[in-house]
Amino acid sequence: MNGEDDHWSLYSASQHLPAVLTDPNKGKQANFFTKTWGDTFVEKSVIEKSPFLPEITWAHFEGYLKKYGKRYKKHSDNKRIKFENNHIKIKTHSLNTEGIPDIYLRQHLNLHDPKIFQDVFQTKKTEHELQDELSHHLDIVEEQIAQQVSQKSGAFFHAMTSHDSIMEQMGIALGEVKSLRSKVQRVDKALARDSLRLIGLARSKSNNVALLDKLKLMATVLQTQPTLQLLLSSSDYVGALELISGTQEVLAKELAGVTSLRHLPSQLKEMQKLIDKMLSTEFERYAAADLHRPLDFESAGVLEPERLVSLVAGLLRQNHLHFLEVYKQEAVTAAQALLKQLMIEQLADAEDELNELTGSGEIAPSMDAAHWLRVIRSASAALTKIVERVKAVHDVIKETAAASAGLSSLETSTSISSTPTENFLTLEEHNRIELKLRDLLSSVCDYCNERIASLVSTQSDKQTVTSAQVIELSNIVESFTEMCERTCGGRQSAALKAAFKIQAGNYVHKFHTQRKNKLQLLLDAERWKVAEVPSEIQILVDKLASGEPIKSLPSSPSEEDITTNRYNLKPTPYIKIGTQSYYTIGALLILIRLISEYCVCSYDLQLLAPVVARNLTDLLKTFNSRSCQLVLGAGALRTAGLKTITSTNLALASRSLQFLVWMIPLLRAHFKTLTIEALSGFDLVEKDIGHHIRQLETKVLSIMNTLLGDQLGEWDAKPPVPSKQFRNISRHLTKLHEAVSAVLPDEQVTDIYEVIHKNFKNRLRTT
After folding, report:
1. Phi, psi at 447, each rounded to 5°
2. Separation between Cα atoms, residue 136 and residue 141, nearest integer Å
3. pLDDT-wise least confident of 93-102, 478-487, 631-640, 656-665
4. What whole-number distance in Å separates Cα of residue 413 and Cα of residue 503?
5. Dihedral, 180, 184, 187, 193 alpha carbons, nearest 10
6. What is the pLDDT at residue 43?
7. 537: closest CA among 601, 591, 459, 610?
8. Residues 389, 387: Cα–Cα separation, whole Å
């Protein structure tokens, strides 16, 4: 105590309980504090900002402070005044220690310290005097203590009384606590302990059940290998792979860390590799057995479909798509072996030709056309069966993949009941398999087309091929290509058609060359006289005029045509077309038959219809140009031995060309039904023939103008009348009429004579 008055209040309490209880200046306290009240009363802890509460700043309290600031200030002033009026000032009495040196009033008086010892005993007093002085100081202290005790005796005894009361209350509280603890023990024994024991037993039971399940699971896992052997013996590869996958998953998740099963995952992995190898080997064996079986095998379609589905499902389960490439190579090998065996059987009677076979089963080019065509027919039939077998296997693989991806079920599409137990293919994997399957069909069909194309290409140009053989070859090629397109979903292979087009082009070239040479020989030998028309030619013309495509050459008229007087057995002097009568030469009749042969050839070989059309236009150009050389150019005088080119020859050539002009639109319509290519050659030929016809008319008119001009040049206007010159003119006109009226139609004859009359009058005026 420093002797000054301290203003102590309830808020100044910061001592521990014993100090407060033994404070003589205080009475009995109702509240005790062990910490100073304030911001340090509770230990601080950093509280993070809540993401759900907005951030509060002083700006949010400005309105509140302005509103209640004055009221709070007034309240604080009133509270301070009231506190000052009610404040209790506690007076303390200071100790009177004036006669005692300060060294004895220190808190720590250590006489062992030499300095303190020297300060205490620094005087030169005797021992008796020093003892009296210390006794005096002790009496002063005792007097002051007695005075303080007398002043605080009431508070001291009051504190002791409070202490006894507190001890009594603590004894009562201790008894209550003992009673409560005994009750809690009884409750624990009666209610909680058995319940907790039940909970423990339930937990033990669940642990034992889990342990039993683990043991059962371990027992099941240990039975994996015998089960795998059983599944593999029944060719259930998918089940075996699913069992391995499920066991590996169980070992990785539920039985992880089990020491006794630490070697089982590696054993299962080795077993999985063994199954992969078994699947590949079995599929190769199946592919060889399916593709190399005899062509006359009784069972059509897929060989052992259940086995195929099991193998394919297992390979798809392992995501091994290389088996499609294996099957494609096996199909190619089977096709090669089949063709080679077929060639050996076909050429068994010629042992020297066996050495000329190649590895792909191609044949020697020295075979005749009939034998060559028979080989192609047999090869086409054999490869068709190969493609059908590949297509059947393709369908089964496709259905199995769809079922494995969950897109369909094998039970709904086929009679196979062994469907995969789970959908282990994704849509992306299924689409990739679809692409590979389409590639499988396309590759096999392309290879078969190439092999037959190589057979078609081996035929030498020196070998004679008839039209019937070319038509049969066309049917074989068309049938095989349609089968391949149908199998591949509309995809075309150009190899076989290209090879056939080359062979057919060679045939068409020979066909055209032979007929062109024949026509030239006929024209060179033509006497340019009216030829009789057989009934077969009239039938050809009528069929062409009907607009129907000419599929075959018509034969002689039937009995019905003869009885109805539609056609006669005897030849007629002209070709009848409606009301028109066409007097023609013999070469034109042959040309009509040749044209019909071209039409039949284009119908039979529609792939080469544009080529046949170009050849036909070339044939018509040949007839037009050669007839122009023979008639207008007077070449017939040398080739046919004619003495002169008469008006009859000119009129007959013109009428023959007019018949060709009538035929050209019908020929154009016929070829338009067979090809979509432009047929501009017919327009050019028609234009050239029309120009040739006009030249022939001009030639006739020039001959008459020359004859009439010569007569008018010699004529004089003197008797007799008619003069000799006019009688000669009349004779020339009469001969011309006799020459052209029997060949040309009346309209054209009239036009010719009108021009002659006009020229005659003009010449007569100038004479």
Report:
1. -65, -45
2. 9
3. 93-102
4. 44
5. -170
6. 65
7. 591
8. 5
More confident residue, 708 or 297: 708
Phi-psi region of 565 (alpha: psi -120 to 50; beta: other; left: phi over 0): left
Query: Which helix (H) or strand (E) is 32 found in, with range?
Result: none
Alpha helices (runs of H) in 526-672, residue ranges in sequence order: 535-545, 559-563, 586-604, 609-627, 636-639, 647-672
Closest CA to 740 of 614, 648, 617: 648
Decide: helix, strand or coil at residue 709.
Answer: helix
How many other CB atoms are there within 10 angstroms of residue 76's CB atom? Answer: 10
How far, in Å, CA of 473 to CA of 491, rounded? 22
Can you read off the two tokens belonging to residue 737? 């009429």
Comparing CA positions, the residue from 215, 247, 447 lying closest to residue 333 is 447
**Distant-in-sequence, close-in-space partners of 498: CB < 8 Å, separation ≥ 6:** 453
User: What are 339-371's pLDDT values in tens digits?
Assistant: 888 777 776 654 544 444 444 445 444 567 777
Percent of the chain that is helix, strand, coil (3-state, to 5): 70, 0, 30
CA distances from 276 to 200, 241, 320, 425, 639 (A): 50, 9, 9, 17, 85
Highest mean pLDDT among 201-215, 235-249, 277-291, 725-739: 201-215
* CB neighbours of residue 3 within 10 Å: 8
Question: One-letter amino acid identity for 130?
Answer: L
Cβ-Cβ contacts under 8 Å for 528 (sequence gap 6 or more): 585, 630, 631, 636, 640, 642, 648, 649, 652, 653
* Beta carbons within 8 Å of 499's beta carbon, 6+ residues apart: 452, 453, 454, 456, 457
Of the given ranges (20-24, 642-646, 702-706), which has the lowest mean pLDDT?
20-24
The answer to whether the beta carbons of residues 505 and 569 sit under 8 Å apart is no
Q: Which two tokens stand for residue 181?
A: 């603890």
CA distance 282 to 313: 13
Residues with Cβ < 8 Å from 480, sequence gap 6 or more? 380, 383, 384, 448, 449, 452, 496
Cα–Cα distance for residue pair 752/701, rounded to 1 Å: 7
What is the CB neighbour count within 10 angstroms for residue 291? Answer: 22
With 50 as the cut, is the pLDDT of residue 419 above it? no
pLDDT over threshold 60, residue 578: yes
Residue with tokens 């005692």, as numbered in its chain:
100
Which two structure tokens, joined as six digits, stand for 583?
């007097």
d(CA 75, CA 96): 44
* Positive or negative: CA dihedral 382, 383, 384, 390: positive
Q: What's the token pair of residue 190?
A: 């009666």
Q: Do the beta carbons of residue 331 and residue 444 sit within 8 Å?
A: yes
Show the tokens assigned to 16: 């521990």
Q: What is the pLDDT of residues 191-220, one digit of tens each?
A: 888 888 888 899 999 999 988 888 887 777
How high is the pLDDT of residue 90? 41
Residue range 497-548, pLDDT digits in tens: 888 888 888 888 888 899 899 999 998 888 888 888 888 888 888 888 887 7
Q: Are strands 580-582 and 575-577 parallel, antiparallel or unpaired?
A: antiparallel
**Whether 618 contacts 520, CB under 8 Å:** no
How large is the average pLDDT for residues 586-593?
90
Q: DSSP secondary structure string, 502-513?
A: HHHHHHHHHHHH
**How is 470-482 classified by DSSP, letter by letter?**
HHHHHHHHHHHHH
Q: How far apart are CA 754 and CA 745, in angstroms?
A: 14
Nearest CA to 472 among 372, 362, 347? 372
Q: What is the sign, positive or negative, of the torsion defined by CA atoms of 178, 184, 190, 195?
A: negative
Instruction: Render the burial of 92-112: b for 16+ CB within 10 Å, e for the rest.
Output: eeebeeeebeeeeeeeeeeee
Rounded mean pLDDT of 652-661?
91
List of residues 6+ apart from 51 with CB closer than 8 A: none
